[in-house]
Amino acid sequence: MTTHAIVTMKITAPETLAAYREKAAAALARHGGSVLQASAKLDVLEGGPDLPDMAALLAFPDRDAALAWISDPELAAVHALRRAGGHSSIILL
């Protein structure tokens, strides 16, 4: 069953995040994942949360694939780039 993840990020190092973006799609694809949508233009429809600088919706074939992606030791350097680019939260639905 398809599993989704929500990624939010406060960007602190745009150049580092740009380096991450060059590798992110291949890293996701390694575990069957993809970006369904990503945007830096966010609008609050209800409530008053602190908005991140960007958000993305990811899709994986299943929960195990998402967990394999985040814990894959061969992708550690790619995940490190994302983390060095700012503060990210990834929530698996």
In terms of per-residue confidence, which ranges show pLDDT below 50 for 5 or more consecutive residues? none
The largest pleated sheet is described as: 4 strands, antiparallel
Q: What is the general shape?
A: globular
CATH topology descriptor = Alpha-Beta Plaits
Work out the strand percent.
25-35%
**Structural class, from secondary structure content?**
alpha+beta
Whole-angstrom Rg? 13 Å
For the largest sheet, list the strands in their spatial order.
2-3-1-4
Question: Roughly what percent helix?
Answer: 25-40%
Following the backbone from N to C, one meets helices and strands in this order, namely EHEEHHE
CATH architecture type: 2-Layer Sandwich
Mean pLDDT: 96
Distance between the termini: 12 Å
Describe it.
The radius of gyration is 13 Å and the shape is globular. It has 93 residues and is an alpha+beta fold. It is 38% helix and 31% strand. The model has no long low-confidence stretch (mean pLDDT 96). The protein has one domain: Alpha-Beta Plaits, CATH 3.30.70. The protein has a four-stranded antiparallel β-sheet. The chain has helices at residues 14-29, 63-71, 76-85, and strands at 3-11, 34-39, 54-60, 86-92.
Itemize the secondary structure elements and their pairings:
Elements: E1 3-11, H1 14-29, E2 34-39, E3 54-60, H2 63-71, H3 76-85, E4 86-92
Antiparallel strand pairs: 1-3, 1-4, 2-3
Key phrases:
93 residues; alpha+beta; Alpha-Beta Plaits; four-stranded antiparallel beta sheet; 4 strands; globular
Could you give a short description of this structure?
With 93 residues, this protein is α+β, with helices and mostly antiparallel strands. The chain has helices at 14-29, 63-71, 76-85, and strands at 3-11, 34-39, 54-60, 86-92.
